[in-house]
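Hi! If you just cloned this repository, the fastest way to understand the data is to look at a raw example. We've pasted two of them here, unedited. The first protein comes first, obviously.
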Amino acid sequence: MKEGIHPKYTDCTITCACGEVVHTRSTKGNMRVEICSKCHPFFTGKQKFVDSGGRVDKFNSRLKAKAK
C-alpha cells in the first residue's frame, strides 16, 4: 500500500438518543444518532407514533366519526 493516502482509522463512540453507547472504530470520529437497534421499531416490535401537527388525533377523530 502507498504511504500517507489512507485516512486515520481510530476508536470512536456512537451515542444514540435513547442512551445506548457503542464503542467501535471509524474514520469519522465520535457520532450521535437518533435511532439504533435497541430503540428501532423493526427490532423491538413496538411501534411508535410520531404526532406531527395533530395528524394522529385528526385521523382518530375521523375514524370515530365514520364508525358512528
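Ok, and the second one:
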Amino acid sequence: MARIAGVNLPNKPTAIALTYVHGIGRTSAKKICVLSDIDATRRINELSDDELGRIREVIDRDHQVEGDLRREISMNIKRLMDLGCYRGIRHRRGMPVHGQRTHTNARTRKGRARPITGKK
C-alpha cells in the first residue's frame, strides 16, 4: 500500500487514489499524473518506488495538502472570527456563511432542530 503525504492510498487507478489526499481533487490528480509522467489509469500497486517518488516530489513542490492546508483554512476562519466581520460572526454562531436561507433548511450547519417550549 502506497503512502503519500501521510495517507495510505487504496489500490485504485492513480488519478482516483490521489483524491484521498486532502487538498487534491480530480483535476489536480490528473495534472499530477501528467507532470510525473505516469498513466492515470494505472493502479497504485502497479507503480514502482521511483514513480511514487516522482508523485511525492510533484505534490511537495506544487501543492499544499493535509495538515498544512487544514491549518491554513482554520487560521483563515479564526482570523475572520477575531475581526468580527459578518462572515466571522456567522462562523462563530454556527450559521450558514455564504448567504443561504435559514428559515427552512440549513440543518447541517445549525444542528438538530430544538423544539420551542410552550409553543402551541
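That's it. A detail worth noticing about the second one: The longest helix spans residues 66-83.
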